[in-house]
Amino acid sequence: MKFCSHCGAPVTQKIPAGDNLPRHVCEQCDLIHYHNPKIVAGCIAEWEGQILLCRRAIEPRLGLWTFPAGFMEIGESTEQAAARETKEEAEADVAITSLYAVLSLPHIGQVYLVFRGQMTAPIYKAGSESLEVKLFPLSAIPWDDMAFPVVKDALARYAADVRRGQFQLHLASLSDRI
Ligand SMILES: [Zn+2]
């Protein structure tokens, strides 16, 4: 950040009084510009033992697979965001059934909230951000063509829970090494 979004004056990096981290501070209007993690809401949409995956039509990771996920918007709840992303990317309707995983990515300042959602019908197609949308049995998940490590991690946990016959809430922090 170079300029104050409030008054347009140049900002400087310094540790404000009473704080312990450097922030972008406006010397003119004294506004402190905090930069905090963003929430990504995702949905593992289920239909008769299969899950819905999308092949990305946009960078980054164009052509690779993910479950529907994206940044939350102001004015919606986390589960509404997960259902909206499923509608946008896969044109599928889901009833969100539970929170499945909270996965922190400290190195890029993101937190993934992954939900399970029951598809209301086996109706789906590629939204504008997807090349292709498909229901996969767990035995056919394209593990080598996953768009993001966090997506692969969440689906691996999901597949293990299905094999075990018991779902649990997963809480984990992923490094940039996986
Ligand atoms: Zn300012």
From TrEMBL:
Its cofactor is Mg(2+). Transmembrane segments: none annotated. InterPro entries: Nudix_hydrolase, NUDIX_hydrolase-like_dom_sf, NUDIX_hydrolase_dom, Nudix_N. It comes from Nitrospira moscoviensis. This is Putative Nudix hydrolase, MutT family. It holds the Pfam family NUDIX. Residues 22-158 form the Nudix hydrolase domain. PROSITE patterns: NUDIX.
